[in-house]
Amino acid sequence: MIQPVQIGRRMVGPGHKPFIIAEACINHEGNFEMARKMVHVAHAMGADCIKFQIHILENEMLREAPQSENFDEPLYDTLEKTNLSVDEHRKLKALCEQLGIFYLCTPFSRDGADILEEIGVEAFKTGSGELTNLPLQEHIARKGKPMIVSTGMCTEEEVAETVSLIQGIGTPLILTHCVSAYPTPYRIVNLGMIRKYADRFQVPVGLSDHSRGIYTALGAVPYGACVLEKHFTLDKMRGGPDNPVSIEPGELAELVKGADAIFQAMGEERRIFEEEKQIVAWARESVVTEKPIKKGTVITREMVWVKRPGPGPGAIPAKDLKKVIGKTALADIPKDQQLLWSHVGR
Questions:
Q1: Residues 42 and 146 in one domain
Q2: Which residues, 6 or more positions from 60, have their beta carbon under 8 angstroms from its beta carbon?
Q3: How many domains is the chain built from?
Q4: Residues 6+ apart with CB under 8 A from 144
Q5: Under a CB-based contact definition with an 8 Å cutoff, are residues 110 and 280 in contact?
Q6: What is the residue range of 164's domain?
Q7: Each residue's pLDDT tens digit, 260-310
Q8: 151 plus 299 within the same structural domain
Q9: pTM for the complete prediction?
Protein backbone atom coordinates (compact mmCIF):
# COMPACT_ATOMS: atom_id res chain seq x y z
CA MET A 1 0.00 0.00 0.00
CA ILE A 2 1.38 3.39 -1.01
CA GLN A 3 2.01 5.63 1.97
CA PRO A 4 1.56 9.41 1.75
CA VAL A 5 4.60 11.62 2.25
CA GLN A 6 4.53 14.45 4.76
CA ILE A 7 5.83 17.81 3.58
CA GLY A 8 5.69 20.18 6.50
CA ARG A 9 2.09 20.24 7.71
CA ARG A 10 0.76 18.70 4.48
CA MET A 11 0.28 15.04 3.62
CA VAL A 12 0.83 14.29 -0.08
CA GLY A 13 -0.33 11.03 -1.59
CA PRO A 14 -3.31 8.66 -1.76
CA GLY A 15 -6.34 9.90 0.14
CA HIS A 16 -5.25 13.52 0.07
CA LYS A 17 -6.22 16.21 -2.41
CA PRO A 18 -3.60 17.08 -5.06
CA PHE A 19 -0.71 19.29 -3.98
CA ILE A 20 -0.67 22.18 -6.45
CA ILE A 21 2.75 23.62 -7.31
CA ALA A 22 3.00 26.93 -9.18
CA GLU A 23 6.40 26.68 -10.86
CA ALA A 24 7.75 30.23 -11.05
CA CYS A 25 10.88 28.96 -12.88
CA ILE A 26 12.53 32.07 -14.38
CA ASN A 27 9.30 33.85 -15.29
CA HIS A 28 10.20 36.51 -12.72
CA GLU A 29 13.06 37.47 -15.09
CA GLY A 30 15.44 37.86 -12.16
CA ASN A 31 13.33 40.71 -10.80
CA PHE A 32 12.85 40.23 -7.06
CA GLU A 33 9.76 42.41 -6.84
CA MET A 34 8.14 40.40 -9.61
CA ALA A 35 9.05 37.20 -7.76
CA ARG A 36 7.43 38.60 -4.61
CA LYS A 37 4.30 39.46 -6.55
CA MET A 38 4.19 35.93 -7.96
CA VAL A 39 4.21 34.55 -4.40
CA HIS A 40 1.30 36.79 -3.41
CA VAL A 41 -0.70 35.92 -6.53
CA ALA A 42 -0.04 32.17 -6.33
CA HIS A 43 -1.22 32.24 -2.72
CA ALA A 44 -4.31 34.27 -3.61
CA MET A 45 -5.18 31.79 -6.37
CA GLY A 46 -5.11 28.92 -3.87
CA ALA A 47 -1.89 27.12 -4.84
CA ASP A 48 -0.32 25.00 -2.11
CA CYS A 49 3.21 25.84 -3.16
CA ILE A 50 5.31 28.12 -5.33
CA LYS A 51 8.61 26.81 -6.63
CA PHE A 52 11.68 28.70 -7.74
CA GLN A 53 15.10 27.66 -9.04
CA ILE A 54 18.53 28.32 -7.61
CA HIS A 55 21.50 28.34 -9.96
CA ILE A 56 25.14 28.25 -8.85
CA LEU A 57 26.17 28.33 -12.48
CA GLU A 58 29.88 27.67 -12.16
CA ASN A 59 29.05 24.48 -10.27
CA GLU A 60 26.33 23.15 -12.59
CA MET A 61 27.29 23.80 -16.20
CA LEU A 62 29.93 24.84 -18.70
CA ARG A 63 29.39 28.00 -20.70
CA GLU A 64 29.39 25.93 -23.87
CA ALA A 65 26.20 24.05 -22.89
CA PRO A 66 23.86 23.84 -25.92
CA GLN A 67 20.47 25.52 -25.90
CA SER A 68 17.05 24.30 -26.97
CA GLU A 69 14.86 26.24 -29.38
CA ASN A 70 12.75 27.77 -26.61
CA PHE A 71 15.80 29.87 -25.60
CA ASP A 72 16.76 32.98 -27.58
CA GLU A 73 20.29 33.16 -26.19
CA PRO A 74 22.82 30.77 -24.65
CA LEU A 75 21.41 28.92 -21.65
CA TYR A 76 24.21 30.08 -19.35
CA ASP A 77 23.53 33.72 -20.20
CA THR A 78 19.77 33.35 -19.69
CA LEU A 79 20.16 31.72 -16.28
CA GLU A 80 22.82 34.20 -15.21
CA LYS A 81 20.54 37.10 -16.11
CA THR A 82 17.46 35.68 -14.37
CA ASN A 83 19.08 34.16 -11.28
CA LEU A 84 17.95 35.31 -7.85
CA SER A 85 20.48 35.81 -5.05
CA VAL A 86 20.64 33.60 -1.99
CA ASP A 87 19.43 36.48 0.15
CA GLU A 88 16.45 36.97 -2.16
CA HIS A 89 15.59 33.29 -1.81
CA ARG A 90 15.67 33.66 1.98
CA LYS A 91 13.29 36.61 1.73
CA LEU A 92 10.96 34.70 -0.59
CA LYS A 93 10.86 31.74 1.79
CA ALA A 94 10.08 34.09 4.69
CA LEU A 95 7.27 35.66 2.66
CA CYS A 96 5.85 32.23 1.85
CA GLU A 97 5.87 31.30 5.54
CA GLN A 98 4.13 34.56 6.39
CA LEU A 99 1.38 33.94 3.84
CA GLY A 100 1.00 30.21 4.45
CA ILE A 101 2.14 28.90 1.07
CA PHE A 102 4.97 26.38 0.71
CA TYR A 103 8.29 27.54 -0.73
CA LEU A 104 10.12 25.00 -2.86
CA CYS A 105 13.21 25.51 -4.95
CA THR A 106 15.01 23.31 -7.43
CA PRO A 107 18.79 22.98 -7.07
CA PHE A 108 20.98 22.01 -10.00
CA SER A 109 24.23 21.44 -8.08
CA ARG A 110 25.56 20.25 -4.75
CA ASP A 111 26.12 23.84 -3.66
CA GLY A 112 22.56 24.76 -4.58
CA ALA A 113 21.21 21.87 -2.53
CA ASP A 114 23.40 22.80 0.42
CA ILE A 115 22.21 26.41 0.31
CA LEU A 116 18.58 25.28 0.28
CA GLU A 117 19.23 23.01 3.25
CA GLU A 118 20.72 25.97 5.11
CA ILE A 119 17.72 28.13 4.15
CA GLY A 120 15.51 25.44 5.68
CA VAL A 121 13.40 24.02 2.85
CA GLU A 122 10.91 21.35 3.92
CA ALA A 123 11.47 19.23 0.81
CA PHE A 124 13.62 19.06 -2.31
CA LYS A 125 12.35 19.10 -5.89
CA THR A 126 14.67 17.95 -8.65
CA GLY A 127 14.11 18.57 -12.34
CA SER A 128 14.04 15.99 -15.09
CA GLY A 129 17.53 16.93 -16.24
CA GLU A 130 18.88 15.72 -12.91
CA LEU A 131 17.00 12.39 -12.92
CA THR A 132 20.10 10.53 -14.10
CA ASN A 133 22.51 12.67 -12.08
CA LEU A 134 22.90 9.98 -9.45
CA PRO A 135 25.70 11.77 -7.57
CA LEU A 136 23.43 14.80 -7.05
CA GLN A 137 20.37 12.67 -6.28
CA GLU A 138 22.36 10.81 -3.63
CA HIS A 139 23.76 14.05 -2.20
CA ILE A 140 20.22 15.39 -1.77
CA ALA A 141 18.72 12.12 -0.57
CA ARG A 142 21.24 11.87 2.26
CA LYS A 143 19.88 15.10 3.69
CA GLY A 144 16.82 13.05 4.68
CA LYS A 145 14.15 15.50 3.59
CA PRO A 146 11.29 14.44 1.29
CA MET A 147 12.14 14.51 -2.40
CA ILE A 148 9.90 15.23 -5.38
CA VAL A 149 11.69 13.90 -8.44
CA SER A 150 10.62 14.69 -12.02
CA THR A 151 11.04 12.00 -14.66
CA GLY A 152 11.07 13.69 -18.06
CA MET A 153 13.45 12.82 -20.94
CA CYS A 154 14.41 9.44 -19.52
CA THR A 155 13.60 5.77 -19.79
CA GLU A 156 11.58 3.80 -17.26
CA GLU A 157 14.69 1.87 -16.31
CA GLU A 158 16.55 5.11 -15.61
CA VAL A 159 13.68 6.09 -13.31
CA ALA A 160 13.97 2.71 -11.60
CA GLU A 161 17.69 3.25 -11.03
CA THR A 162 17.11 6.61 -9.35
CA VAL A 163 14.19 5.30 -7.30
CA SER A 164 16.31 2.39 -6.10
CA LEU A 165 19.06 4.77 -5.02
CA ILE A 166 16.74 7.08 -3.07
CA GLN A 167 14.69 4.29 -1.51
CA GLY A 168 17.89 2.51 -0.54
CA ILE A 169 18.84 5.55 1.51
CA GLY A 170 15.36 5.64 3.03
CA THR A 171 14.39 9.14 1.93
CA PRO A 172 10.64 9.80 1.46
CA LEU A 173 10.00 9.99 -2.27
CA ILE A 174 7.37 11.37 -4.63
CA LEU A 175 7.74 10.98 -8.40
CA THR A 176 6.24 13.32 -10.96
CA HIS A 177 5.61 11.97 -14.42
CA CYS A 178 6.84 14.50 -16.95
CA VAL A 179 7.52 14.99 -20.65
CA SER A 180 10.18 17.65 -21.19
CA ALA A 181 8.88 19.22 -24.39
CA TYR A 182 7.90 22.89 -24.42
CA PRO A 183 5.01 22.70 -25.11
CA THR A 184 4.23 19.00 -24.75
CA PRO A 185 1.82 17.79 -27.46
CA TYR A 186 -1.19 16.13 -25.86
CA ARG A 187 -0.54 12.92 -27.80
CA ILE A 188 2.72 12.29 -25.90
CA VAL A 189 1.61 13.34 -22.40
CA ASN A 190 0.90 9.67 -21.51
CA LEU A 191 -1.06 10.13 -18.30
CA GLY A 192 -1.17 6.35 -17.87
CA MET A 193 2.44 6.52 -16.65
CA ILE A 194 1.15 7.93 -13.36
CA ARG A 195 -0.54 4.65 -12.46
CA LYS A 196 2.29 2.65 -13.96
CA TYR A 197 4.90 4.36 -11.78
CA ALA A 198 2.69 4.07 -8.69
CA ASP A 199 2.16 0.33 -9.25
CA ARG A 200 5.80 -0.38 -9.99
CA PHE A 201 7.54 1.79 -7.40
CA GLN A 202 4.86 1.98 -4.69
CA VAL A 203 5.37 5.71 -4.13
CA PRO A 204 3.02 8.68 -4.56
CA VAL A 205 3.11 9.96 -8.15
CA GLY A 206 2.10 13.30 -9.62
CA LEU A 207 2.37 15.20 -12.89
CA SER A 208 4.78 17.94 -13.87
CA ASP A 209 2.99 19.20 -16.94
CA HIS A 210 4.32 21.25 -19.84
CA SER A 211 1.32 20.99 -22.15
CA ARG A 212 -0.75 24.09 -22.88
CA GLY A 213 -3.56 24.99 -20.50
CA ILE A 214 -4.82 22.95 -17.57
CA TYR A 215 -6.63 20.11 -19.37
CA THR A 216 -4.07 17.38 -18.88
CA ALA A 217 -3.32 18.44 -15.30
CA LEU A 218 -7.00 18.08 -14.44
CA GLY A 219 -7.13 14.81 -16.38
CA ALA A 220 -4.28 13.48 -14.24
CA VAL A 221 -6.33 13.58 -11.04
CA PRO A 222 -8.45 10.45 -11.81
CA TYR A 223 -5.19 8.65 -12.59
CA GLY A 224 -4.16 9.25 -8.99
CA ALA A 225 -1.87 12.26 -9.43
CA CYS A 226 -1.05 13.56 -5.96
CA VAL A 227 1.01 16.51 -7.21
CA LEU A 228 0.17 18.86 -10.06
CA GLU A 229 2.97 21.16 -11.14
CA LYS A 230 2.45 23.82 -13.80
CA HIS A 231 4.70 26.65 -14.96
CA PHE A 232 3.20 29.88 -13.67
CA THR A 233 3.43 33.43 -14.98
CA LEU A 234 1.76 36.76 -14.33
CA ASP A 235 1.51 37.35 -18.08
CA LYS A 236 2.23 34.69 -20.70
CA MET A 237 2.67 37.38 -23.37
CA ARG A 238 5.97 38.46 -21.79
CA GLY A 239 9.15 37.13 -23.35
CA GLY A 240 11.18 34.24 -22.03
CA PRO A 241 11.60 30.53 -22.64
CA ASP A 242 8.90 29.33 -20.24
CA ASN A 243 6.11 31.91 -20.56
CA PRO A 244 4.43 30.36 -23.63
CA VAL A 245 3.71 27.10 -21.75
CA SER A 246 2.88 28.75 -18.43
CA ILE A 247 -0.54 29.35 -16.94
CA GLU A 248 -1.76 32.73 -15.76
CA PRO A 249 -3.41 33.51 -12.39
CA GLY A 250 -6.97 32.80 -13.54
CA GLU A 251 -5.95 29.43 -14.95
CA LEU A 252 -4.11 28.59 -11.73
CA ALA A 253 -7.24 29.36 -9.72
CA GLU A 254 -9.29 27.10 -12.03
CA LEU A 255 -6.70 24.35 -11.69
CA VAL A 256 -6.89 24.52 -7.89
CA LYS A 257 -10.70 24.46 -7.86
CA GLY A 258 -10.99 21.85 -10.61
CA ALA A 259 -8.44 19.47 -9.11
CA ASP A 260 -10.19 19.59 -5.74
CA ALA A 261 -13.60 19.06 -7.36
CA ILE A 262 -12.39 16.04 -9.34
CA PHE A 263 -10.63 14.62 -6.29
CA GLN A 264 -13.83 14.87 -4.27
CA ALA A 265 -15.76 13.21 -7.11
CA MET A 266 -13.60 10.09 -7.32
CA GLY A 267 -15.53 7.86 -4.91
CA GLU A 268 -16.88 4.39 -5.76
CA GLU A 269 -19.92 4.24 -3.46
CA ARG A 270 -23.45 3.73 -4.80
CA ARG A 271 -26.41 4.33 -2.48
CA ILE A 272 -29.25 6.83 -2.16
CA PHE A 273 -27.47 9.85 -0.74
CA GLU A 274 -29.13 12.21 1.70
CA GLU A 275 -28.96 14.97 -0.90
CA GLU A 276 -30.97 12.81 -3.34
CA LYS A 277 -33.86 11.93 -1.05
CA GLN A 278 -36.00 14.98 -1.74
CA ILE A 279 -35.69 14.26 -5.46
CA VAL A 280 -36.70 10.64 -4.99
CA ALA A 281 -40.11 11.81 -3.75
CA TRP A 282 -41.10 13.24 -7.12
CA ALA A 283 -38.74 11.63 -9.62
CA ARG A 284 -39.68 7.99 -9.02
CA GLU A 285 -43.02 6.41 -9.99
CA SER A 286 -45.68 4.41 -8.21
CA VAL A 287 -48.63 2.26 -9.33
CA VAL A 288 -51.78 4.34 -10.05
CA THR A 289 -55.31 3.57 -11.23
CA GLU A 290 -56.21 4.36 -14.84
CA LYS A 291 -59.96 3.90 -14.23
CA PRO A 292 -62.26 3.46 -11.23
CA ILE A 293 -62.00 0.00 -9.65
CA LYS A 294 -64.89 -1.38 -7.60
CA LYS A 295 -64.41 -3.48 -4.50
CA GLY A 296 -64.18 -7.18 -5.36
CA THR A 297 -62.90 -6.58 -8.92
CA VAL A 298 -59.93 -8.58 -10.13
CA ILE A 299 -57.34 -6.05 -11.23
CA THR A 300 -56.20 -6.31 -14.84
CA ARG A 301 -53.36 -4.66 -16.74
CA GLU A 302 -55.76 -2.15 -18.34
CA MET A 303 -56.80 -0.80 -14.94
CA VAL A 304 -53.39 0.28 -13.63
CA TRP A 305 -50.12 1.86 -14.76
CA VAL A 306 -47.17 3.74 -13.26
CA LYS A 307 -46.83 7.52 -12.84
CA ARG A 308 -45.09 10.06 -10.67
CA PRO A 309 -44.80 10.81 -7.79
CA GLY A 310 -42.82 8.15 -6.06
CA PRO A 311 -44.39 5.84 -3.53
CA GLY A 312 -45.20 7.30 -0.14
CA PRO A 313 -46.12 5.22 2.92
CA GLY A 314 -48.08 2.16 1.84
CA ALA A 315 -47.97 3.01 -1.86
CA ILE A 316 -46.80 0.47 -4.43
CA PRO A 317 -43.49 1.12 -6.24
CA ALA A 318 -43.49 1.01 -10.04
CA LYS A 319 -41.23 -2.05 -9.99
CA ASP A 320 -44.05 -4.02 -8.29
CA LEU A 321 -46.70 -3.35 -10.98
CA LYS A 322 -46.86 -7.02 -12.01
CA LYS A 323 -47.51 -8.06 -8.41
CA VAL A 324 -50.78 -6.12 -8.51
CA ILE A 325 -52.21 -7.81 -11.61
CA GLY A 326 -54.67 -10.55 -10.66
CA LYS A 327 -55.23 -9.22 -7.15
CA THR A 328 -58.75 -8.48 -5.89
CA ALA A 329 -59.61 -4.91 -4.93
CA LEU A 330 -60.44 -4.73 -1.22
CA ALA A 331 -62.17 -1.33 -1.54
CA ASP A 332 -63.57 1.04 -4.13
CA ILE A 333 -60.64 2.89 -5.69
CA PRO A 334 -61.14 6.09 -7.72
CA LYS A 335 -59.35 6.83 -11.02
CA ASP A 336 -55.95 8.59 -10.91
CA GLN A 337 -55.07 7.54 -7.41
CA GLN A 338 -51.95 5.90 -6.05
CA LEU A 339 -52.71 2.27 -5.38
CA LEU A 340 -51.93 1.17 -1.84
CA TRP A 341 -51.00 -2.31 -0.65
CA SER A 342 -54.03 -2.02 1.65
CA HIS A 343 -56.23 -1.73 -1.45
CA VAL A 344 -55.17 -5.13 -2.78
CA GLY A 345 -53.48 -7.01 0.03
CA ARG A 346 -50.13 -8.66 -0.34
A1: yes
A2: 108, 109, 112
A3: 2
A4: 170, 171
A5: no
A6: 9-264
A7: 999 999 999 999 999 999 999 899 999 999 999 999 999 999 999 999 999
A8: no
A9: 0.89
